Amino acid sequence: GIKLRLYPNKIQQGQLEQMFGNDRFVWNQMLAMMNERYQNNKDLPFLGKFKLNYLLKPLKKEYPFLKNSDSSSLQVVNEFLT
After folding, report:
1. Would 5 be classed as within a structural domain?
2. Fewer CB in 10 Å around end: N or C, the chain?
3. Is residue 66 part of a domain?
């Protein structure tokens, strides 16, 4: 394995904090949506990562600050959620 240490400047630190915050926000929003969906109808099939990724676009329209984050990091959040 390779160990790597990063020394980001102030701007990069802000970008990383924004990205990690957005990832946490998307995780919590998707998890709440999936839990509510399950509570409303337990017979519905579980959503996979592709369907969750499809829901990112409307989520970005509703919360414009998510556009500041890299889309691939948000898709990885959905992948870990499934």
Report:
1. no
2. N
3. yes
